[in-house]
From TrEMBL:
Protein name: Lipase
SUPFAM superfamilies documented for this protein: alpha/beta-Hydrolases
InterPro entries on file: AB_hydrolase_fold, Fungal_lipase-type, Sec_MonoDiacylglyc_Lipase
Species lineage: Bacteria, Pseudomonadati, Pseudomonadota, Gammaproteobacteria, Vibrionales
Domain Fungal lipase-type residue range list: 60-203
PANTHER family named among the record's database cross-references: ALPHA/BETA-HYDROLASES SUPERFAMILY PROTEIN, FUNGAL LIPASE-LIKE DOMAIN-CONTAINING PROTEIN
Coiled coil feature spans: none
Superkingdom classification of source: Bacteria
Regions that span the bilayer: none
Length: 261
């Protein structure tokens, strides 16, 4: 597995943050004037943005996390369902519902009655056939959905997915998903400190994560730290944090509060 470079991390993180905005000017971030396709959810809100540039071979698929009460409620559907006839595994029912929800038309030429997945496939197919490669990224439930959609696209178009990068992602499947997931060596799951969502759903073994975990904690990056150890370290740090403010290093770090004389 290749390392995730800093500029890649920053770019995907910024795009995931901007995904929550209704309007996104892709040319400000190096994409082509015609290099954006928006896929809306059932409420007519942007859910997925497909972005590409003139010269780069990379197409970035950015998936927004839960951003309204109905989507948050879908996170509570903790049972699993089969996601596709092509794939022999089951995933979180709420995320499957989001993938196969009806997508409201965003452009005048968009057809009615298409699911989010069908509309995404229509956008990605000509790009895949032209030799483009895809990076899937998303925050929170968007990251979980990114893993599933990337695996589905990789199954349909082998070697078309370059990488998957998720931020604060909950688990999406169980042992069968982990075993059959084809992008485990191209997936980076980024967790920040004690992000409680990264421990969800709260059913050990029934749900399991995939890919390489990068834990941003205490000024360092830890790789593939076991969940239990990550939780214990975070809790210990949280409990001891009031005492850390007594250290001289904290006083030295705050020297900038004082004016220069």
């Amino acid at each position: 597995m290749k390392k995730l470079k800093r500029y890649q991390y920053e770019r995907y993180a910024v795009l995931c943050s901007l995904a929550y905005q209704r309007v996104f000017k892709q040319t400000r971030y190096g994409f082509a004037p015609n290099g954006q396709r928006v896929i809306a959810n059932r409420f007519g809100k942007p859910m997925i943005r497909v972005l590409w540039g003139r010269e780069s071979n990379e197409v970035i698929v950015v998936i927004k996390g839960s951003h309204n009460l109905p989507d948050w409620l879908l996170n509570l559907m903790l049972f699993k369902v089969k996601v596709s006839k092509r794939l022999n595994y089951r995933i979180h029912a709420g995320y499957a519902r989001q993938i196969y929800q009806e997508s409201s038309p965003w452009y005048n030429h968009d057809q009615l009655g298409m699911s989010v997945y069908q509309r995404l496939l229509n956008v990605l197919t000509p790009l895949a056939q032209s030799g483009k490669r895809f990076t899937f990224t998303g925050h929170s439930s968007g990251g979980a959905i990114a893993c599933v959609l990337a695996d589905v696209i990789e199954t349909r178009y082998p070697k078309s997915v370059k990488r998957v990068v998720t931020f604060g992602q909950p688990a999406v499947g169980g042992v069968d998903f982990k075993r059959q997931f084809k992008l485990k060596h191209r997936t980076y799951r980024i967790c920040c400190d004690l992000d409680i969502v990264t421990y969800l759903p709260p059913i050990p073994l029934y749900y399991q994560h995939v890919g390489k975990m990068l834990w941003l904690y205490n000024g360092r990056i830890y790789e593939n730290t076991p969940t239990v150890i990550r939780l214990l370290r975070s809790l210990a740090s949280w409990l001891l944090r009031p005492f850390s403010y007594h250290l001289m290093s904290k006083y030295i770090r705050n020297k900038d509060f004082f004016d220069e004389r």
